[in-house]
UniProtKB/TrEMBL annotation:
Residues 410-430 are annotated as: Disordered. Pfam families: FAD_binding_3. This is FAD/NAD(P)-binding domain-containing protein. GO terms for molecular function: FAD binding; monooxygenase activity. It comes from Daedalea quercina L-15889.
């Protein structure tokens, strides 16, 4: 992006609460644009974590910041997803993540370890001049008031930091979210607990069957009753990350909190009824990180044991239907905003939470890289949410439904799922299936967050700049009217496509 059309960058101090993946990414993008940014992160680097999925919509952004070879050192391009029964390991189907299709969509579908991605973003942010305070917790957030609009935070050390603008990137249990909502977050336990672990590769190598999985580029899913287990190699085939998705009806009562800090012994779950390879893998788990999905009213939580129709193509992409009831992501003073999971908490261990959080960060950062006046801020904040909320909601709902589909109990629904998975081997896609799958994949993976922000600027954002000068207010309202018309059109087209 060129700054020649934007004038001088406004001198702003950004404070980011939460130095996770979204927080470090937004800090990096803002600092690269010339802003001053400080990040407060309550934990350190190298905390327990597992595998994450980095699809093309985000790997292509990362590849603009670091050489692809560096990404391939920490990420493995995913070849496909073998689908198997958890009870006996029987093969049900195989879903190809075709390299040529991913290339067409602009990036690799990478399998990584959370820690490696976190360290990469930390390095990028600090090199760009971001100050990151690790092991420092924000305990409260204060809006500006009266003539002083600046927000501030209190740290556990007693220190108070004031900034020009505050970004809440502090995850699902966000302290910033409470201030933006103006009330306590209303949550209740959902029907899903996810257990995450990393199996040391050196132990897997001693067993030929486990070594094959460690060296494979696949991301297998074992599908059981109220439980599914997936895994993939991480750290360039050095270790193996595993998630266990446990739904109501699996262990009773379901347990856990909405946190990545709850370590429980590996024998907290019974694996004795699973296929031997899964038992062997989990016998090597050092511990499990237990994370509960909490329900919020806007989360469409498919908690029933629905046996409705399913389609393997939905694994590739999403059901394009828009849930209702999304909250505002910025506060009334227009000085505090939420990004990533603090804006839209996600199912732990999903396919898309990392990519969607990074998209938020890049889109927000690209908009605010244009900031030349405080008068632009309300329009930038509206644009950020307008451009992001529908996509986030659609992908989130689909991610959860796909996870649910992997843990169906025996019955006609599960039989239909298996039949569908079996016949849809991607090697045998006919022309129609290929086209349909490609269109849906293109919607998810072809997205470029920075381009969305730039396009908004070119089409509408410049009018906000005119408005700042007090000359052409009418352009801004026209721009917003047209933007909301566009949004209606887009929504209709999503709804049309959901019937495909
Ligand atoms: C330690 C950790 C390990 C994870 N491991 C995996 C994994 O293995 N697989 C997977 O699929 N997903 C994992 N996730 C979730 C994944 O990172 C998110 O789904 C996704 O990246 C969205 O990121 P986010 O930055 O919005 O939120 P998060 O990743 O939740 O990051 C929020 C950050 O804010 C910090 N924070 C929270 N409250 C405060 C506070 N009051 N003061 C200061 N800092 C605060 C947290 O420590 C955290 O670093 C993990 C998350 C964390 C925090």
């Amino acid at each position: 992006m060129s700054f020649s059309d934007t004038g001088a960058l406004l001198d702003v101090d950004f404070l980011v609460v939460g130095g996770g993946l979204a927080g470090l990414t937004v800090a990096f993008v803002l600092a690269k644009a010339g802003h001053r940014v400080r990040v407060i992160e309550k934990r350190g680097l190298g905390v327990p974590a597992g595998g994450v999925r980095v699809p093309p919509n985000v790997s292509k952004l990362l590849a603009q910041w670091v050489p692809r070879e560096e990404l391939l050192r920490i990420g493995t391009p995913c070849a496909g997803t073998p689908l198997r029964h958890l009870e006996d390991g029987e093969s049900v189907g195989y879903l190809h993540w075709k390299a040529d299709v991913m290339k067409e969509l602009g990036g690799d579908f990478l399998l990584m370890h959370h820690e490696d991605l976190h360290r990469l973003l930390y390095k990028l942010a600090t090199k760009a001049g971001v100050r990151v305070d690790l092991n420092t917790e924000v305990i409260s957030v204060h809006q500006g008031s009266g003539g002083v609009p600046n927000p501030s935070v209190s740290l556990s050390t007693g220190e108070v930091i004031t900034a020009d603008f505050l970004i809440g990137a502090d995850g699902p249990r966000s302290v910033v979210r409470r201030v933006v909502l103006g009330r306590e977050d209303i949550v209740e336990p959902s029907c899903l607990t996810v257990y995450t672990t990393t199996i040391p590769g050196e132990k897997m190598r001693e067993d030929p069957e486990m070594r094959r999985w460690l060296e494979s580029d696949d991301w297998p899913i074992w599908m059981g009753t109220h439980r599914s287990i997936c895994g993939h190699s991480v750290r360039g085939h050095k270790d193996f990350g595993i998630h266990i998705y446990s739904w109501t009806g699996d262990i009773n009562p379901p347990a856990g909190e909405e946190t990545w800090e709850d370590l429980v012994p590996a024998d907290s779950l019974d694996f004795s009824m699973h296929t031997p390879i899964v038992q062997k893998l989990l016998s090597l788990a050092p511990h499990l990180i237990r994370t509960r999905l909490m329900r919020r009213h806007e989360v469409e939580d498919d908690s029933s044991d629905s046996e409705g129709s399913v389609s393997i193509s939905s694994l590739h992409s999403v059901s394009l239907k828009r849930p209702e009831g999304i909250e505002r992501w910025s506060d009334g003073t227009s000085r505090i905003v939420l990004i990533g999971e603090s804006a839209h908490p996600w199912q732990p261990g999903g396919t898309h939470p990392v990519s969607i959080a990074l998209e938020d960060a890049v889109l927000f950062g690209t908009l605010f890289a244009r900031l030349t006046s405080w008068a632009q801020v309300p329009s930038f904040l509206s644009a950020y949410q307008e451009l992001r909320e529908e996509r986030c909601a659609i992908v989130k709902t689909s991610d959860l439904k796909n996870a649910r589909m992997m843990a169906m109990p025996p019955g006609p629904g599960r039989d239909a799922r298996d039949a569908d998975m079996g016949k849809n081997n991607a090697d045998e896609w006919d022309e129609g299936t290929t086209k349909e799958n490609f269109e849906e994949m293109a919607w998810v993976f072809g997205y470029v967050a920075s381009d969305e922000a730039d396009e908004w600027w070119v089409n509408w954002g410049r009018y906000a700049q005119d408005a700042r000068d007090g000359e052409e207010m009418k352009h801004m309202s026209l721009g917003f009217q047209m933007m909301s018309m566009m949004s209606e059109v887009t929504r209709e087209s999503y709804e049309d496509r959901s019937e495909l």
